[in-house]
Amino acid sequence: xxxxxxxxxxxxxxxxxxxxxxxxxxxxxxxxxxxxxxxxxxxxxxxxxxxxxxxxxxxxxxxxxxxxxxxxxxxxxxxxxxxxxxxxxxxxxxxxxxxxxxxxxxxxxxxxxxxxxxxxxxxxxxxxxxxxxxxxxxxxxxxxxxxxxxxxxxxxxxxxxxxxxxxxxxxxxxxxxxxxxxxxxxxxxxxxxxxxxxxxxxxxxxxxxxxxxxxxxxxxxxxxxxxxxxxxxxxxxxxxxxxxxxxxxxxxxxxxxxxxxxxxxxxxxxxxxxxxxxxxxxxxxxxxxxxxxxxxxxxxxx
Amino acid sequence: xxxxxxxxxxxxxxxxxxxxxxxxxxxxxxxxxxxxxxxxxxxxxxxxxxxxxxxxxxxxxxxxxxxxxxxxxxxxxxxxxxxxxxxxxxxxxxxxxxxxxxxxxxxxxxxxxxxxxxxxxxxxxxxxxxxxxxxxxxxxxxxxxxxxxxxxxxxxxxxxxxxxxxxxxxxxxxxxxxxxxxxxxxxxxxxxxxxxxxxxxxxxxxxxxxxxxxxxxxxxxxxxxxxxxxxxxxxxxxxxxxxxxxxxxxxxxxxxxxxxxxxxxxxxxxxxxxxxxxxxxxxxxxxxxxxxxxxxxxxxxxxxxxxxxxxxxxxxxxxxxxxxxxxxxxxxxxxxxxxxxxxxxxxxxxxxxxxxxxxxxxxxxxxxxxxxxxxxxxxxxxxxxxxxxxxxxxxxxxxxxxxxxxxxxxxxxxx
Lengths: 302, 415
Known about the structure:
The complex is a heterodimer. Helices cover 30% and strands 15% of the residues of chain A. Chain A is of the alpha/beta class. Chain A folds into two domains: 192 residues, Rossmann fold, CATH 3.40.50.620; 80 residues, no CATH class. In chain A, helix 1 crosses helix 2 and helix 6 packs antiparallel against helix 7. The longest helix of chain A is centred in the N-terminal third of the chain and has 16 residues. Chain A is globular and about 55 Å long. By secondary structure, chain B is α+β, with helices and mostly antiparallel strands. Chain B is built from eight helices and 24 strands. In chain B, strand 11 and strand 12 form a beta hairpin. In chain B, helix 4 packs parallel to helix 5. Chain B is globular. The two termini of chain B are 34 Å apart. At the A-B interface, helix 1, helix 2 and helix 6 of A face helix 2, helix 3, strand 2, helix 4 and strand 7 of B.
C-alpha cells in the first residue's frame, strides 16, 4: 500500500476482518468451511489479513461430495500446501456407505443435500463450535435474513423466526454446549464485490471460473458438464463442445455453466457487471421450489 | 468504493417493499431471472402491475401473510456507491427490529402514505431514527399518484412532520422531504414530470450525493482490543500486536496513548494493515497496533489518546430497547457486552418507560416488556470505559445478554 492511511480500504474488507477476529476470540474450536469456490477462497485471504503476521488460527474443512470438479480439488490441495494450513476432508461417500444417507437417483440426482449429514457429523466429531462459511445475503431471499453469527441447535438446525438481533457491530457468540454458530464474514458482499476483490487482490482461483472448452449438453435451457459418471444424461441429450465458464462452483451435478469467452479476471468482472442473470440462476438446487433454500437451511445446510 | 447502509421502516401498506423493489428495478439491479419470477407471481396474484415487494419479502411466512417480519438485507449498487438496505417492519410490535436495523445504518428512509399523512407510526419511526442518532433522514412521501401529485398535500405533510422535528432530541440530523410514487416510479430514480413544483433531487440522486464524511457521527478515537496477535515464529519472535477496529477518530504512529484499565502510558510504535505498515489508522479500519512499551494487554482493554479518557465507571444510566419475551425487572442480572468487552450487570433502577411516539413517559413502570424503550440504571461488577452515546455512537452503546438463554435481549445507549 502506498497510502499513508487506511481510509481507502474497502469497508466490507474491514468488516470481514473484524468478524474473523471476533471468531478467534470468542470460540474455542472454529473451522473454516472450504469448498474450493471463489467465496471460500476469498475467506482464506481475509483470514490471512485478519491474523497476519500469525498464521490463520483454525483449520479448513472440506465436505467432499465426490462430485467436485477435479480442477477444484487440485486447487484446494495446492492452496493449503502453499499457505501451510491444516485441511480436514470428510466424504459424503462415507455417509452413503455407512447407510446414513441415500443417494438420489434420476434426472436431477445430486449429492448437494446429502452434504448436510456429513457436515453435521463432522461438526460433532471435531466438536467445532464455530463454522465459518462464505454465504452471502445477496445470493438468495432466505439468506438475506441470515445473521453474521447464526446459532444452530444440537441438531444443526436454523430457527429463522427466533434469531438473535445483531446491533451495531457487536457479535454475541455465547452458546450452550452442543450448539454451534455459523459465521458469515462476507454476508454483506455481493457477487460483484467478491469478483472485484479477487481482481484487486490478484487472488488465484480455479481455472473453471474462466472460459474453456468443455463437453456439455443442454437441459432446461442450462448448460451441463457431460461427465456421465456424475451427471445423469438422457441418450437424446446430445453432447457438444462449447466454450463456457462457471460463475459458481458447487457439484458438477447441480452447477450449470454459462457460455462465455471471459478468459481473465478483468473480463470476468466486466461480464458480471453486464450480466442480467443472477448467480444462483445457474444452481438447479434452488429451482426445486421457491422456498428451497429456506427449507435446506432449517435442516442444517449451509 | 463507498458503502452506504440505509434503514427503512414502514407499515404493511405504505409501500416500503414496493419502493425498494422500484429502486432495484430502476437501477437495473434486478436480474432477468428475478424479474421473471416477479412477473410470474404478479400475474398469478391477478395484479395488472409488477409487485416489486415480491423482490424483498424473503421468508415463507412473510410471503404467505404478505408482511415483513424480520430485518432483511437488500443490496444494489450504482457506478459510484454500494447500497445496503436494512428493511424492517413498522408495527409497534417490531420496535426491536427497527432499532436493530437502524443501529447498523448511516441513513434512514421514513415512508409516509400521502393519503394518510403523519400517523402514529411515523412518529415512532422518526423517534427511533433520532434515538439511534442517524445523521441523514429522508422522508419519502409516497403514493403521490393517489393524491393527484398535490403540492398542497405535500406541504401539509411536510409541515406536520416539521412540528414533530421540533421535539427531537438529536437536532443535528439532516432531514429531506421527497414526493414519490414507488409504484409508478416518480422521483425514485427518475425525475417525475408529475411534480413540476418539486425542485429537489430524486431519492437515488440524493443518496448518490450524500457525502460519506457526513454520514458518520465522529468523536474521539477509541481502540478496543479484540485479539492479541503473537506469531511466535522465528521472523516475528517477540512480536506482540493488538488487533482491533478504530472508532470515532483516527490514530497515528507516535501518538501518546493510555491503555485502559491499567492507565499505563505508552506510544504507538507501528500500525499494520496485513503486510503493510501505515502512518495513520482511519476511523472504522481493522488494523494491528504495536506499542513502544511492553504493556500487558488483553481482549476488552482499550487504547485511547492521552488526555482523552472516556468515563471509567462501575455504573451507568442508559436508554434501553428491550427485545426479549421475558420481562426486564429491577434486580435482575444480565451480561453487558460493550463493544468486545463483557461484564456482569444488575438492573438498579427503572426510571421510566418512554413512549416512542413523543407522547411522554410512564414513570410507574416496574418491568419492561418486549419492544419497550426505557431509561434504566445499571451496576456493574467491573468498570467499563464508556462515552455518552450522543458523543460516541460506538463507545456509548451496548447489548444485554441473558446468561441463561444466551440470547441478545436488549440494546442500550448510555447517557
